[in-house]
Amino acid sequence: MPDTPQGGSLAHTHEGKPGLPRGRSRLPARAVRASQVQRLCRAAIAAVAEGGYADVTVADIVRRAKVSRVAFYTHFRTKEDCFLAATREGGKLLADGVVAATRAVPPDAPDEEVLRAACRAFLQFLADEPAFARAFYIGMPTAGPRAVARFDAAERR
Questions:
Q1: Which of 47, 61, 90, 103 is the most exposed place for a label (fewest CB within 10 A)?
Q2: Rounded-to-integer distance, Cα 43 and Cα 66, Å
Q3: Is 144 exposed, middle or buried (0-12, 13-18, 19+ CB in 10 A)?
Q4: Rounded CA gap, 73 and 87, in Å?
Q5: Other CB atoms within 10 A of residue 149 CB
Q6: Domains, the chain, ordered by start
Q7: Structure confidence at residue 24 (pLDDT)
Q8: CA-to-CA separations, 117 to 43, 48, 133, 136, in angstroms, rounded
Q9: Are 147 and 84 in contact (CB under 8 A)?
């Protein structure tokens, strides 16, 4: 599912597009680092959604992100670290959307209306970000003990 609308914004990769400039550039180092991390996280979501966590390699992620292996290891120690960072980002966006939806409900509304708004926002996020949904709900339980612990904690929240 490389860079398809069905993947959602969290799986938008740079396959088939130019990478960041090699070597020194006019871009501030902070902007380059932020772009690399974002590219790597989105590439990890896309790769895991497409192929499953176990079959994804660091090489798959850096190819999709259009960054170097050195850049990968500058930001992450392992594939698991990258994947956990990516799912943390997606989980935060999901939670922020649910909270915003519940806060948009009038304060005097019945609890049922607040719950409906939360469920609607949750399900809409998953519909808008199907690659993230696959990576999170299918990939996380297979990605090792740290991922399982984070998955369980997210489920409880």
A1: 103
A2: 9
A3: middle
A4: 18
A5: 11
A6: 5-156 (1.10.357.10)
A7: 60
A8: 31, 29, 19, 22
A9: yes
| Eight-class DSSP state of 4 | -
Biggest distance spanned by C-alpha atoms of the chain: 58
Amino acid at the residue 63: R
- In sequence order, which ranges of the chain are alpha helices (DSSP H)? 29-51, 58-65, 69-75, 79-103, 111-128, 130-134, 145-156
Residue with tokens 């949750």: 122
Residue 109, SS3 per DSSP: coil
CB 144 within 8 A of CB 80: yes
12 secondary structure, DSSP code: -
